[in-house]
Amino acid sequence: MLSAPASTHDAVVVGSGPNGLVAANLLADAGWDVVVLEAQPEPGGAVRSAGYLGPGFVADVCSAFYPLAVASPAIASLGLEDHGLRWAHAPAVLAHPLPDGGCALLTRDVAETSSALERLGRGDGAAWERLWELWGRIGPALLEALFTPFPPVRAGARLLARAGPAGTPRLARFAALPVRRLAEEEFSGPAALLLAGCTMHTDLTPESAGGALYGWILSMLGHQYGWPVPEGGAGRLAQAMVGRLHSRGGEVRCSTPAEEVLVRNGRATGVRAASGETFGARRAVIADVAAPLLYGGLVGWEHLPARLRDDMRRFQWDYATVKVDWALSGRVPWSAEAAGRAGTVHLSGGIDEMTMYCAQLATGVVPDVPFVLMGQMTTADPSRSPEGTQSLWGYTHVPRSVKGDAAGRGLSGRWDGTELEMMADRVEQQVERFAPGFRALVSRRHVLGPRQLQEHNANAVGGAVNGGTAAAHQQLFLRPVPGLGRPRTPVEGLYLASSSAHPGGGVHGACGANAARAALRAQSPVRRWLSGGPVTLA
User: Where are the beta strands (DSSP E) in 334-435?
Assistant: First the structure.
């Protein structure tokens, strides 16, 4: 028999990542009594900062740059600037230095970007401006369609209207293009590396269908919004969300890991914490929890359809991650001086090198020449380190199950201290390739592997940072599995709000907003009557 809950609320939110906090805020705005349960000692999930680089240095543990956050209607609607959030921008958005000392550079100024790209490849400036013109026509409608639950009926209609009858088939083709094919069709020089590097923020390859769309969206957001960072550290974004929630009567309980979603007669009635304390939910349980941790984890299989167990067996994670933070005694000595202006830097010798890296990952081999995604945090926000220094990070992916090491150094996938240091050395070799003398500036290094990332955030299972693959077979109405492409789950009153839900990874809060709105809609008297449930009036 279930014991009476220690406290009862309208909604219990499991997880205080950005999706959970967006959901909690929207429910509190509707007048609901909301409590958020967080396993870690501080809120934020993947949006947190730390001081492990030493005095005066601020490191963002997981996410760092937030183009999707500033573009997201869900986060913009919260007015977080009223709760202490301030955005900072680097002089340039993104750089991809080249082995010959050149650099493809994206700034917020489209004309400056296209002019510089034209100098690197004849016709590339005009090609880039065509991509920007396409964004101007359909970008806002596309974002609206992506951020709303699937199917996006009204947003989709607006998108098709913007594309027009003649443009819709071409838009569909563009959305399906691999980034390699887009590069071959449109560019003569290295401009396409900006797009390809953005595609690599996912677990897609240069040959993956839909990869060009990801790269294009992130690049165009760089022009429209920049890729800003919160002044003082990523944790300031989470703090602003928590402060706003508190101002509306919501509560966040840290160091309170959830152990079970309580289910009675097919309905979620609350959450039991690992301590044994229970939190009743009159209206909804919102789970900012990776799908494999929810289904068969917090919710036992006895409460779920048998088919779901089989579907979850097929759920695909994205790749594991190794992240290195550095405290530098000076700025990175890039061979391409322009790279020093950018907040984000992508390191790869070209699309062929990216393809080889992805092929090694796909076959279980630790890459010998990793693609490295870097963040020059002091360049974006001078408060991140003492004057004249740099707070810097770089991450790369490794296989979830290691079968070999392309460099022949014996990395086995144990990812203990020795192997992490070896992998960090490999990352530094790639940085040194484009910035000779970099290693001489390192005053402190801190390495996080798959196990440490999961310890920091339980949703990063095995070091996966995007809540599951971004490949087409697990997106839209197929995310996290076929038949569960909307926030509602097979358990009444339980909603999936993590990046395992549509629209997937990234700090945009849309997964949480979609879950909160689904919970609110379920409380409408008409819907409750049609479903045969009792009507609950606000």
Answer: 342-347, 365-366, 372-376, 390-398, 404-405
What ranges in 87-234 are assigned the alpha helix state H?
110-120, 124-147, 153-176, 179-186, 192-199, 211-224
Detail the DSSP E strand segments found in 255-389. Answer: 258-264, 267-273, 278-287, 320-328, 342-347, 365-366, 372-376
Q: How far is CA 468 from CA 101, 501, 506, in A?
A: 36, 9, 11
pLDDT at 537 over 50: no
* Backbone phi and psi for residue 295, each to the nearest 5 degrees, phi listed first: -80, 115
> If you count DSSP H runs as helices and E runs as strands, how many of each does the chain have, helices first?
18, 20
Residue where the block lists tokens 């028999």: 1
The span from the CA of 344 to the CA of 372, in Å, is 11
Residue 74's nearest CA partner among 32, 34, 18, 30 is 18
Which of 3.90.1570, 3.90.660, 3.30.980, 3.40.50 would CATH assign to domain 316-456? Answer: 3.90.660
pTM over 0.85: yes
Listed by start position, the domains of the chain span 7-48+234-315+468-531, 111-222, 316-456
- pLDDT per position as a tens digit, 215-228: 999 999 999 999 99
Q: Are 59 and 53 in contact (CB under 8 A)?
A: yes
The tokens of 91 are what? 């002089």
Q: Position of tokens 């392309």?
A: 406
Cα–Cα distance measured from residue 150 to residue 146, given in angstroms and rounded to the nearest whole number: 8
